[in-house]
Structure formats: structure tokens, C-alpha cells
Amino acid sequence: ISHTSHPFYTGKMMLVDTAGRVDKFNKRFARHAKK
């Protein structure tokens, strides 16, 4: 991996991981809110 593409790649992966965590949190929160 080149130096120019590496930061972009890791940043993109972090973004996807964060989005996944937020989605899980939102689903869990929505489940509690229905009560």
C-alpha cells in the first residue's frame, strides 16, 4: 500500500466501523424507547 492511499484506507475503515457501532446503538436505544 502506498503512502498516499494508506491514510485514506484506514480512515475509511474507521468510518465504516464507527457507523456500524452507531447503528447498533440506535437499534438498542429504539428498542428501549418503544417501552
What does this 3D model show about the protein?
The chain has 35 residues and is mainly alpha-helical. Helix content is 80%, strand content 0%. It is built from one helix and no strands. The chain has one helix spanning 6-33. The protein is rod-shaped, with a radius of gyration of 15 Å.
Secondary structure elements and pairings:
Elements: H1 6-33
Distance between the termini: 49 Å
Please identify the structural class as seen in this structure: mainly alpha
Q: What's the Cα radius of gyration?
A: 15 Å
Helix tally equals 1
Tell me how many strands there are.
0
Order of helices and strands: H
> What general outline do the C-alpha atoms trace?
rod-shaped
Q: pLDDT average, as an integer? A: 76
Which segments are poorly predicted (pLDDT under 50) over 5 or more consecutive residues? Answer: none
Biggest sheet character: none
Portion in strands: under 5%
What share of the residues lie within helices? Answer: over 70%
Short structural description:
This protein is mostly helical.
Output the keywords:
single chain; 35 residues; mainly alpha; 1 helix; 80% helix
